[in-house]
Structures are given as C-alpha cells and as structure tokens.
C-alpha cells in the first residue's frame, strides 16, 4: 500500500509541477554596464547556433551541451530561463537556469561571456539578474557548480554571496574534474522589509 501511495504522490507532484505556471516571463530591455549599452533578452531557438559557438569558445573541452540539449532547455519556458546579451547584434554572453518549484531553488546551469567581453561586469550582471528573477518569483535559493580549477569564477560567485557547499567528485563528463557546489540563500520579502 505504501508503494502505491508513493507512486500516487509522485504522479500528483509531477502534474502539479508540470501544469503550474511559474510565470517565468522576461521583458527584453536595453541595459548600460560601465557606459556600454547591451540588449538583454530571453533566448529563443534561433539563438542556439550562436549560443553553441560561444559555449565552445568559452568551454573548449566541454562537449556535454549540443543543439538538442539547448533546444530542450529553451522550449521548457515554464521552468527554464535563458537570457542572452547582444551588442551590435552580436551575441556576447548568456546565462541559463532551471527554476525548481518543488524546493524553490534556481539552479544556474550555464554562464558564458565571450573572451573579448570578460572582466567588464557582464557575468556578474547576468547572475544578479537571475537572482532578481528568483526573488520576483519567490524562490529561496540559487545553486550552481563550477570547475574546481575555475578559481576566478569561484571568486566572482563568492563576492556575490554564494557559499561553497563542498565538492562533487568527477562531476564534469569531459574530463571528470571535480565541481565546487555553491549556493546562495535569498532573504524572503518579509525579512527584506524588516531590515
């Protein structure tokens, strides 16, 4: 009987999460970062070719993301949000995240900034934008993994407030490198108002 009850609860949970509208809307806008103007918008399927090129440029040894993975992510608009940045119609950065309704966590799966545009605050801006989206939708935390060797990224995430939660051994498929598991807790609106 317990087995049937667990199965029934899983089905209910799936239906609840599948049909729930998580309101992951995003309005395209122009943003200015350090006196440079960019277009920030939600990624759509026609952007995939450029996203793949950027992904390969930034993470040359990682082949775990291909066109079908990106397409699956972008088509799942209820629980996934991918944002891209353009300058003069050139894709220069993107971020992707899964909004996990069950545990109220936003898991950042991708952050990529073209090497010519790194160290200009774009990565930090994209992460802060995703934090704001999480707050707006009443999520409680953000999580991500970064390569153990990517000390620069770890420093960036730490300055934003992410905490090191430990290692995930042999996490990356390409070379079995360990990943640093990082998490940021978000204050509830009630806590923010009372500060």
Describe the protein in words:
By secondary structure, this protein is of the alpha+beta class. It has six helices and eight strands; from the N terminus they run αββααβββαβαββα. The protein has helices spanning 2-19, 48-58, 67-75, 122-136, 151-160, 189-193, and strands spanning 29-33, 36-42, 80-87, 90-100, 105-113, 141-147, 163-168, 179-185. It has an eight-stranded mixed β-sheet, sandwiched between helices. The longest helix has 18 residues, at 2-19. The chain is globular and about 40 Å long. The protein starts with a helix and ends with a helix. Residues 15-22 and 190-195 have low confidence and may be disordered.
The count of strands amounts to 8
Q: Approximately how much beta-strand content do the residues carry?
A: 25-35%
Largest sheet: 8 strands, mixed
Number of helices: 6
Task: Report the helical percentage.
Answer: 25-40%
Structural class: alpha+beta
The H/E string reads HEEHHEEEHEHEEH
Radius of gyration of CA atoms, rounded to a whole number: 18 Å
Shape: globular
| Major β-sheet strand ordering | 1-2-3-4-5-6-8-7
Mean pLDDT across all amino acids: 86
Report how far apart the termini are: 49 Å
Low-pLDDT segments, ≥5 res: 15-22, 190-195
What's the short version?
This protein has 195 residues and is α+β, with helices and mostly antiparallel strands.
Quick tags:
single chain; disordered C terminus; alpha+beta; eight-stranded mixed sheet; 195 residues
Q: Which helices and strands, and how do they pair?
A:
Elements lengths: L1 H18 L9 E5 L2 E7 L5 H11 L8 H9 L4 E8 L2 E11 L4 E9 L8 H15 L4 E7 L3 H10 L2 E6 L10 E7 L3 H5 L2
Parallel strand pairs: 5-6
Antiparallel strand pairs: 1-2, 2-3, 3-4, 4-5, 6-8, 7-8
